[in-house]
Amino acid sequence: MADLVTQQIVSDTAGVKYVVKQTNYSDGTGETNTVIANPTTSNFMTADGTKEIAKVWYSINTANRKSAVEIAWGGATENTTSLLLSGQGYLDFRDAGNDIVNNATNPNGFVYLSTKDFALNDNYTIVVEFR
């Protein structure tokens, strides 16, 4: 079996923004490096690593309070963690001009999502806005 994962591209407008919503209902296997932004198929995302995380809405419901969801920038040889999320919340980095920049070594423009220690029936909904 596998986790039940759905993804919706909410907005993908060249020069404006890219917004993706992803949900997961886990059977306990979890996710590793699921692509949430692909610069080769997006109008907005680019392979040069210049895009930034502007806003995140999240609801992560797990039995183990140490479980989490990781969002990572793609790099040529390894990914670099940008956010590690648990619980529920909304993060708006644009208010103070503190968008999360891509700090991957040799960025490739991809953005990945992985679950950490997910068990049966753990679930999440995440919306990420890139600018």
What is this structure, in a nutshell?
The protein is an all-beta fold and 131 residues long. Helix content is 0%, strand content 57%.
What do these coordinates show?
There is one protein chain. By secondary structure, this protein is mainly beta. It has one domain (4-130): Jelly Rolls (Sandwich). It has no helices and nine strands. The strands form two sheets. A five-stranded antiparallel sheet has the order 1-2-9-4-7, with no helix packed on it. A four-stranded antiparallel sheet has the order 3-8-5-6, with no helix packed on it. The protein is globular and about 40 Å long. The model has no long low-confidence stretch (mean pLDDT 95).
Instruction: Report the major sheet.
Output: 5 strands, antiparallel
CATH secondary-structure class = Mainly Beta
Percent of residues in beta strands?
A: over 45%
Low-confidence spans: none
Strands in their spatial order, largest beta sheet: 1-2-9-4-7
Helix proportion of residues, in percent? under 10%
- Element pattern in H and E: EEEEEEEEE
End-to-end distance: 35 Å
> What is the overall silhouette?
globular
Number of strands: 9
Give average pLDDT, whole number: 95
SS summary, helix count: 0
Taken together, the total number of domains comes to: 1
Which fold does the CATH topology refer to? Jelly Rolls
Structural class: mainly beta
Gyration radius (Cα, Å) is 14 Å
For the record, the CATH architecture stands as: Sandwich
